[in-house]
């Protein structure tokens, strides 16, 4: 439905329709206007020339903006490298960036036929703390993205901004230091202001907030509050620069560290592993209801969904099933209080009365390691989630996090079926949190008024035709009347 509405509002649908309507109006009414009589075809040619000029001007603006966007991206890349004094990667990243953009433009499935992809495609900011799993989330999202990154094979984590150019979207993977370091954040905010000038309608179509679920669960209440407050503060700075209130999608990564995850979902095929696992909030749901009640209801539904899957898996595994699999759905029920403590900062209005638009919360796993949270339901003694201690004091961290599987879970369709279809939501949400879209009553009234006007014009046209026919009949009778001269006298 969203795709159909976007098509009906698109330039290439509306302009041909308006052009045909204009030609039809000219064809029917131009002969009835005294100063246009005999010039109907010329008037239609002028109308066609006007629409052709409109198309040419639009294409010129798109080409100019596309060129400006490419330059802006290149300037931001150079600035980011210079700010840290890392000049050795500058030319490499430039080449990667040019190659990625060129690949995007040659992809015929990209927005605008590829040639104006940077202008037409939605843009998303991917933000999160260091080691939250942002890069793994994007590289294993299954979106066929060309990547422009300065990271070497020996480096881990995002050092600057990594650029992901997919036929469906442009995604900016920001470094974790942009959340910690005010100077880096200020410089990136300047880039967002420049981006707003080039993409005036919607500079950024959404924010993908990546948070490590194990880190969130293992943190103390004070640490969770501090993390939530820091993220909200930085996001509000970015939304001020964008002069918009883009939707925020919270991605909880490393869900595979919940005990029982691997056994619960190991038998899934590719299609099942691409499905979203989480919840989407209505535009006013958190505002009209309390955050806790919304989380309780959504998590209960999610737990029921996971429980049905686990029950089927228990039957399939039989004697091979263990208690971790049986208790796996319980973790989702226990998340409500922890998530409320973290998300309460997003549900609050700031001093200007602005409330961030939290659109959804989703659980993901980009790859699986042997590091897991302590199975708290085994001993029923722990009231919080803690990381399993190392078996030996001198155990190496890389041994603790040895990769056991590289399959991605619940990522691809979260982007394709949830995030990307919401690409126009930013257009209808002001920076002050107000809905700028026309309500259904206003749209219905406008449609009714339009239909009434068309009906009135059609009825008037029919009455005029009947009146002209009656006059013509009277003139014919008068012409054939024997006393025509007497009646005209």
From TrEMBL:
Descriptive protein name: ImcF-related family
Keyword field: Membrane, Transmembrane, Transmembrane helix
Native source organism of the sequence: Pseudomonas amygdali pv. tabaci
InterPro entries: P-loop_NTPase, T6SS_TssM-like, TssM1_N
Residue ranges occupied by any Type VI secretion system component TssM1 N-terminal domain in the UniProt entry: 183-438
UniProt xrefs under Pfam families: IcmF-related_N (PF14331)
Keyword Membrane: yes
Keyword hit for Nucleotidyltransferase: no
Membrane-spanning ranges: 12-30, 36-57, 438-459
């Amino acid at each position: 439905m969203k795709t159909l509405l976007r098509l009906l509002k698109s330039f290439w649908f509306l302009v041909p329709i308006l052009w045909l309507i204009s030609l039809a109006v000219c064809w029917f009414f131009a002969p009835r206007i005294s100063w246009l009589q005999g010039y109907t075809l010329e008037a239609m040619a002028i109308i066609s020339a006007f629409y052709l000029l409109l198309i040419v001007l639009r294409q010129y603006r798109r080409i100019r903006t596309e060129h400006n966007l490419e330059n802006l991206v290149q300037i931001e890349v150079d600035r980011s490298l210079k700010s840290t004094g890392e000049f050795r990667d500058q030319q490499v990243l430039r080449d990667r960036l040019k190659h990625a953009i060129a690949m995007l433009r040659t992809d015929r499935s990209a927005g605008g036929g590829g040639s104006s992809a940077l202008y037409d495609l939605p843009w998303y900011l991917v933000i999160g703390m260091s080691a939250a799993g942002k890069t793994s989330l994007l590289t294993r999202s299954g979106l066929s993205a060309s990547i422009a990154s300065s990271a070497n094979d020996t480096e881990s984590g995002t050092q600057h901004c990594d650029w992901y150019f997919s036929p469906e979207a442009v995604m900016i993977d920001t470094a974790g230091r942009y959340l910690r370091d005010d100077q880096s954040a200020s410089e990136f905010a300047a880039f967002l202001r420049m981006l707003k000038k080039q993409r005036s309608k919607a500079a950024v179509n959404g924010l993908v907030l990546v948070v490590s679920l194990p880190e969130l669960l293992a943190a103390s209440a004070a640490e969770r509050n501090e993390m939530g407050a820091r993220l909200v503060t930085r996001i509000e700075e970015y939304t001020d620069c964008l002069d918009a209130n883009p939707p925020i999608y919270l991605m909880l990564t490393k869900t595979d560290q919940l005990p029982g995850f691997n056994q619960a979902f190991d038998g899934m095929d590719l299609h099942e592993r691409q499905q979203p696992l989480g919840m989407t909030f209505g535009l006013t749901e958190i505002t009209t209801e309390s955050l806790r009640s919304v989380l309780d209801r959504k998590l209960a539904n999610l737990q029921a969904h996971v429980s049905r899957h686990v029950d089927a898996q228990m039957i399939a595994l039989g004697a091979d099933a263990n208690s971790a699999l049986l208790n796996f759905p319980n973790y989702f029920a226990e998340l409500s209080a922890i998530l409320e403590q973290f998300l309460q900062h997003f549900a609050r209005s700031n001093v200007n009365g602005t409330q961030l638009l939290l659109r959804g919360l989703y659980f993901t796993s980009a790859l699986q390691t042997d590091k897991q949270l302590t199975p708290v339901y085994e001993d029923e003694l722990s009231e919080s989630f803690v990381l399993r201690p190392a078996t030996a004091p001198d155990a190496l961290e890389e041994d603790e996090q040895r990769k056991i599987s590289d399959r991605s879970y619940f990522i691809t369709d979260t982007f394709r079926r949830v995030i990307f279809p919401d690409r126009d939501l930013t257009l209808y949400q002001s920076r002050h949190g107000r809905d700028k879209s026309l309500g259904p009553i206003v749209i219905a009234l406008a449609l009714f008024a339009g239909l009434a006007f068309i009906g009135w014009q059609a009825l008037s046209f029919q009455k005029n035709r009947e009146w002209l026919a009656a006059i013509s009949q009277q003139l014919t009778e008068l012409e054939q009347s024997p006393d025509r001269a007497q009646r005209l006298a």
